[in-house]
Design goal:
Elements lengths: L51 H7 L8 E4 L6 E5 L10 H14 L6 E6 L3 E2 L2 E2 L3 E4 L8 H13 L4 E2 L3 E4 L32 E9 L2 E7 L12 E6 L6 E6 L2 E7 L6 E7 L3 H15 L8 E3 L6 E7 L29
Parallel strand pairs: 5-7, 6-8, 8-15, 11-13
Antiparallel strand pairs: 1-2, 3-6, 3-16, 4-5, 9-10, 9-14, 12-13
Helix pairs in contact: 3-4
Length: about 350
């Protein structure tokens, strides 16, 4: 297997968005259907307006409004209003990003994640190292990692004698999208060539007679593998609600006890997504009865055998007919051996 990834591009504008309020763990999976208004549905006459400012005033738009209408062929500006006003691009940037990706990568390009080895397989034993190779897929989730872990089992693998490596340099790694945003908002995670769950970790808390129990996991609808690279500590304070610091390659959070209430959950951003993905994959592989060494980062994919692959759109693997339908729940009791 040579040069699995020849491109170093990554779409992020549409991938890393989620609700930041404490009361909600996820964004809605579909748009809310509008409720029909009562009364007559007959169209109301629209008063003709002659200028952009009159149109803006008639629409009762608040704040600063700017726009520019141009002829695509000639570039000539046909009409403008505050054309030099700097405004956030917001979701319109997604269309530009998508058009650039179609031109630069082509419509058939797929973001894919691979599992490979530089050794041989005999009697269920991998003689070499195992590699989790990121391809910049922004949609990789825990279910996909579970599919690839299950694939190793279907190949008859029961032991890996070498090391476990992950490759995350398909794109440049970023600590966050916008440094001006608060540290705890889930829409502003890190970006890497190896991402997982939109680079968010699920934080849940429950109050009991003995205080609070806290869990950090990479949950999906089918799996809840515990996460140890992100740690949470409850602090006796009012504000700030959250604090964050990185230490020894891990995310260390504190949360205000006064802000927790009886219980709840939310998603927090992950600052080491490549190590996060590798840790979760290791847990899911362990649930298949295969023990991997602690993950280590390398910058080059191996020359060797491709074992499993997850395609962001097609979700196919090397074996004909295998569509990733096998899911094995990771053990909730699994403890990080590096913390033992």
């Amino acid at each position: 297997m040579t040069n699995i990834f020849s491109r170093r591009f990554f779409l992020t504008a549409a991938a890393f968005a989620s609700v930041g309020h404490v009361a909600f763990a996820n964004a809605p999976v579909s748009s809310v259907r509008p409720v029909a208004r009562g009364g007559s549905v007959a169209a109301k006459p629209v008063r003709a307006v002659s200028t952009p400012n009159a149109l803006i005033q008639a629409a009762k738009l608040g704040g600063a409004v700017g726009f520019a209408v141009a002829d695509v062929r000639s570039g000539k500006l046909l009409e403008t209003n505050n054309k030099a006003l700097g405004l956030p691009p917001a979701s319109t940037a997604k269309a530009i990003t998508a058009l650039y990706a179609l031109d630069a990568l082509g419509p058939n390009y797929r973001f894919a994640t691979h599992v490979a080895t530089n050794g041989s397989i005999a009697n269920g034993v991998v003689s070499g190292d195992l590699y989790l190779i990121g391809g910049g897929d922004p949609t990789l989730d825990t279910n996909a990692l579970a599919d690839m872990a299950a694939k190793l089992k279907t190949l008859g693998i029961r032991e890996v004698r070498g090391q476990f490596f992950y490759v995350d340099n398909a794109v440049a790694n970023l600590h966050d999208i916008d440094k001006t945003q608060p540290a705890h908002v889930s829409y502003n995670p890190a970006i890497s060539g190896l991402n997982l769950n939109f680079n968010r970790v699920h934080f849940e808390w429950r109050r009991s007679s003995n205080g609070y129990s806290v869990t950090m996991d990479a949950r999906s609808k089918k799996h809840r593998p515990n996460v140890y690279i992100s740690k949470m500590q409850i602090a006796a304070r009012d504000l700030p609600v959250y604090t964050y610091r990185a230490r020894q390659g891990r995310d260390h959070w504190t949360v205000s006890r006064q802000a927790l209430g009886r219980g709840g959950s939310r998603w927090l951003p992950v600052r080491h997504p490549e190590a996060y993905a590798a840790e979760v994959f290791r847990t899911l592989v362990r649930a298949q009865g295969i023990t991997l060494a602690a993950p280590r980062r390398v910058t080059a994919a191996p020359q060797g055998q491709l074992l499993a692959m997850f395609d962001a759109l097609e979700e196919w693997f090397l074996e004909d007919g295998f569509k990733g339908c096998m899911f094995i729940k990771a053990s909730a009791e699994y403890q990080d051996p590096d913390d033992a």
